[in-house]
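thought: fold this chain, then report.
action: predict
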Amino acid sequence: MAVDRNAILLTEDKDFGELVHRLRMNHCGILLVRLLKMNSTEKSRRAINVILSQGDALMNSFSVLSNEQLRIRPGK
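observation:
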């Protein structure tokens, strides 16, 4: 559905890393949220802020948002 809408997929499921890198899954951008010891509201706020501030860089990239940093790995 995200590909059909040209949208970034937001997930907490680490299996998407394997799908993208090993199985070459088609995507328009994936943001893996790895925020520990935060409630859902705080996780949502952090993810929204990253999408608003880094949206263009997230497109067509596999990105990981952790408590310490945002890592963006551009797609090929």
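thought: worth noting. The longest strand covers residues 61-66.
final: tokens above.
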